[in-house]
């Protein structure tokens, strides 16, 4: 299913066709459902230029279609997921959704949701989550993910491993052939005690593939602290992660590791917003990447 950008252009109140009006309607069309009853645009109108932020919002609004009244919803973290949180809060405010309880995956999301008046709870009260919506740093052709470059991987994995449907929302820049390709970080949350020993061990696990491990630091040079007051070790793989399943097993066996940022076999639905439209695929479809 694809919504082409040209469908996003509508007349504004003054009868003019504008990019802004187009974007507003794109968002509404994406939020409305797959059966977007878009008005056919005039052929002469140029396609709107969608920013990465627009794409994130479109994907997020589309994902909120999966949220129904009475559901327990996992609220993801990051610049994409925050659009979904805002949309859920808006629908609650408008009375289009009722009795939704959100389980936030980070303190930041918790703050956002509270500010928007979205009712929150936790996994103690609700150990089963109906649907979770979250962004990702990388998505491979089998919908496996790297998450946690914002540092929220542990709480995200906790909540998202408890949900019936896990909807991942990304713009097309997040699609990769192999996780870790391009030399970007695969984060691992570790306990601060003896972090240097844990870091050395992690690096040595992938020595043959030229992996480099680095402690994540903030702008002040101090170790970055997660919401759980742990550290993050970033693993950089020269040519991506060869075998994510065995890498996952090996990392989890290291003493001092809390969790890693590979989310393997967890995604049930992937929504990708690109300049050509929005694509929604379920895990069973599996053929999103042209070159896969
Ligand atoms: O720790 C951060 C989370 O895993 C985010 O969901 C992930 O980094 C994607 O974030 P964004 O949507 O901002 O690119």
Would you give an account of this structure?
Belongs to the ribose 5-phosphate isomerase family. This is ribose-5-phosphate isomerase. One of its GO terms (biological process) is pentose-phosphate shunt, non-oxidative branch. With 292 residues, the protein is of the alpha/beta class. 26% of the residues lie in helices and 21% in strands. It has helices at residues 19-32, 52-63, 81-93, 107-115, 153-160, 195-205, 244-252; strands at 72-75, 101-104, 129-134, 138-139, 145-146, 163-171, 185-190, 212-215, 231-236, 257-260, 262-263, 269-274, 277-282. The chain has a 6-stranded mixed sheet with strand order 2-1-3-6-12-13, sandwiched between helices. Strands 8-9-7-10 form a 4-stranded antiparallel sheet. A 3-stranded antiparallel sheet has the order 4-5-11, with no helix packed on it. β12 and β13 form a beta hairpin. α2 packs across α3 (81-93). The longest helix is centred in the N-terminal third of the chain and has 14 residues, at 19-32. The protein is globular, with a radius of gyration of 20 Å. The chain starts with 18 loop residues before the first helix and ends in a 10-residue tail after the last strand. It binds ribose-5-phosphate. Ribose-5-phosphate is lined by residues 76-81, 134-137, 147-153, 156. Ribose-5-phosphate (R5P) binds at residues 76-81, 134-137, 147-153, 156.
List keywords for this structure.
single chain; 292 residues; alpha/beta; 6-stranded mixed sheet; 4-stranded antiparallel sheet; binds ribose-5-phosphate
